[in-house]
Amino acid sequence: MLTGSIVALVTPMDQNGEINFPALKELVEFHIKSGTSAIVAVGTTGESATLVVEDHVKVVMKTLEFAAGRIPVIAGNGANSTAEAIFLSKLFANSGIVAGLNVTPYYNKPTQEGLFLHFKAIAESCDLPQILYNVPGRTAVDMLPETVARLSEIKNIIGIKEATGDLERLSEIKALAADDFVLYSGDDETGCDFMLQGGHGVISVTSNVAPVQMAEMCEKALSAQAEDAQQINSRLMPVHQKLFVEANPIPVKWACAELGLIPSADCRLPLTILSEQYQSVVRDALTKAKLYS
Fold it and tell me: How would you class 125 by CB atoms within 10 Å of its CB: exposed for 0-12, middle for 13-18, buried for 19 or more?
């Protein structure tokens, strides 16, 4: 079971949208040295929605290569087409990738039965362990705890990234799902409380810019050192909040560039660089969290 601070890693790019693989290699090294528990390659924060399949696969496999077995790598493999998600899952199976992060199908708004059949088909297509990912604020579909519970009984569906920010969801899923089902927060702002209430970790945007602090906070929360965990989390709260002043990953890529972690804040269209009016807002949050060296 992977626990603790799992970074939803940004994908470094240049002004033309070309992927900067040397910068990606440096990010992987940075997280290994900082105590991050695992890396998610090409999730939402890694711009899964803007990368063509060829680039998506290359970023995942390069991340795995750079990690060289020193840190687990989870691959974003979700799609709003079941066939595409199966295609990606099969590509990543038996490669060294430890699991796929599988977002609910966006835009087409499937029913709960459609969600169940979608994830069941992916899980049964190959042996790659699957982590469900529920983020209705981005996908326009909410996978309910009853559906999650049904899916938790399928052999290689091992957990969920629950990104509603609703802590009641945690207790509902815990009550219904299989006992060995792994529960990750996908919401940095409530992630500390999520772990203190029985969750196993956070798949985090904030970890891109504060990996040491997030790793320590998660360690404290998972060992029930609530006061220490909450103290660290309070210091990070401005970052948790302000990294979403525009659509993720726009603010976090700007923050990574501001801190010198990547050369450029560029994204692929239709994503753009952080609007000038918000740059001081994010800079102030980084300052309050004492993230400047």
Answer: middle
Reported as half-sphere exposure (CB side, CA atoms, 13 A), residue 288 has a value of: 17
Residue 261 pLDDT > 90, yes or no? yes
Domains and CATH numbers, the chain: 4-229 (3.20.20.70)
In percent, how much of the chain has pLDDT > 90?
Answer: 99
Q: What is the pLDDT of residues 193-215, one digit of tens each?
A: 999 999 999 999 999 999 999 99
Angle at 74 between CA 94 and CA 1, to 5 degrees: 90
Catalytic residues: 133, 161
